[in-house]
Design goal:
Layout (H helix, E strand, L loop, with lengths): L2 E5 L4 H13 L3 E6 L6 H4 L8 E5 L6 H10 L2 E4 L6 H6 L1 H10 L2 H10 L2 E5 L31 H18 L3 E7 L2 E2 L16 H11 L3 E4 L5 E3 L1 E2 H13 L8 E5 L5 E3 H12 L3 H9 L2 E4 L1 H4 L15 H7 L7 H11 L4 H5 L4
Helix pairs in contact: 1-9, 3-6, 5-7, 6-7, 8-10, 8-11, 10-14
């Protein structure tokens, strides 16, 4: 019976992971977050109350609680991070302070108490890597110039990866996982109308719901490999279980190379799908696809990656895992999940 500490349990990955753990294992979840909107159903479920232990708090303030629970638990997942490009550009120091500085003491505590640290790296660490597939063991990590603060997220995460690897050389049991554009319900709030404030699938979905134009940054030719959240959680569960120590000391890309589409193609797929739902069709008819520049959309400090495809050979072999959800089904699951929230999202136009 594992005790799993999830910091950022109300986040996108955190709430899906905690739900899966409680539904499919006898493990206990110890979770911290500053809000509970995504995990309300879990907290209120009588069947889970004996195994779901939640504390409302902030990792930058409640440091004693965090250290005590690192000591108490078996597996540590520090999922608290800023992961929105507009913030990288406009508030780079905030990104560094939370994503690196606030997480470093947690890494050190995991090393001190001999715990299995499962840390979220990111596909962004590869930066503008020129490889056709990004290989966690061999690909070069290439970032832009200092005057492009967009790269502070990539650099902060990469430095943390290197620090964790260094602790691993001194005995830390760790696994680094790199999510490649995980998508699903609860990714960001569809009720956030401001452009650039959420990630691309949620951004486009919110525009469709509200009948607003979709902006393609620099033409939308850049491609991403999208991964259904349930496929991602399957891999995470295997890492946490860590059968025969297979995941210890490893770096795993968790993504779906088959679902590699341009942002322009994504917009087209989402609009086409919306027309099949009476709840979304009215809004979708009003949407036009327009083009904008990255400077106008994000600010002068932005720079983009044209292709980002994961090499997942070691992930599949060592975790006995494979992504199974195609792009059409992944998008349909999102559209299905929000059918009851259309009215609230549309009201944001008023």
């Amino acid at each position: 019976m594992k005790k799993v500490l999830i910091l950022g349990v109300n986040g996108f990955i955190g709430h899906h992971l905690s739900k899966r753990i409680l539904e499919t294992t006898d493990w206990h979840v110890y979770g911290m977050d500053m809000s509970t909107d995504r995990i309300t159903d879990v907290l209120e479920n009588e069947a889970y109350k004996a195994r779901m232990h939640f504390f409302e708090g902030d990792i930058t303030i409640n440091k004693e609680w965090v250290e005590y629970h690192v000591k108490k638990c078996d597996v540590i997942l520090p999922l608290v991070a800023i992961a929105t490009p507009s913030t990288y550009v406009k508030q780079p120091l905030r990104v560094f302070e939370l994503d690196f500085e606030a997480n470093l003491p947690i890494v050190r505590s995991a090393a001190k108490y001999g715990k299995h640290l499962v840390f979220p790296s990111t596909s962004e660490v590869y930066g503008m890597c020129h490889d056709a597939e990004f290989d966690p063991e061999n690909s070069e990590l290439i970032c832009g110039p200092i005057n492009k603060p967009r790269w502070i997220y990539s650099n902060a995460k990469q430095l943390m990866d290197r620090v964790i690897w260094g602790y691993g050389m001194e005995g830390l049991n760790f696994t680094l996982f790199r999510p490649f554009n995980w998508i699903g319900a609860g990714l960001d709030s569809i009720h956030t109308p401001k452009e650039g404030s959420s990630r691309v699938v949620t951004q486009f979905f919110g525009h469709i719901v509200r009948g607003e134009n979709i902006s393609l940054v620099d033409g939308g030719a850049q491609k991403r490999a999208f991964t259904d959240i349930d496929d991602g959680i399957d891999a995470l569960m295997a890492i946490i279980a860590n059968k025969d120590g297979a995941a210890s000391g490893k770096i795993y890309n968790i993504g779906n190379p088959v679902n590699n589409y341009s942002i322009r193609e994504l917009a087209g797929m989402m609009l086409e799908l919306a027309h099949h739902y009476p709840e979304y069709a009215t809004g979708a008819k009003q949407v036009k696809i327009v083009e904008t520049t990255s400077g106008a959309y994000y600010g002068a400090g932005y720079q983009d990656v044209q292709n980002r495809v994961p090499k997942i050979t070691n992930t599949c072999e060592e975790l006995n895992w494979a992504p199974t959800t195609n792009m059409a089904d992944a998008l349909k699951k999102i559209f299905d999940a929000y059918r009851g929230q259309v009215a609230q999202a549309q009201a944001l136009m008023d």
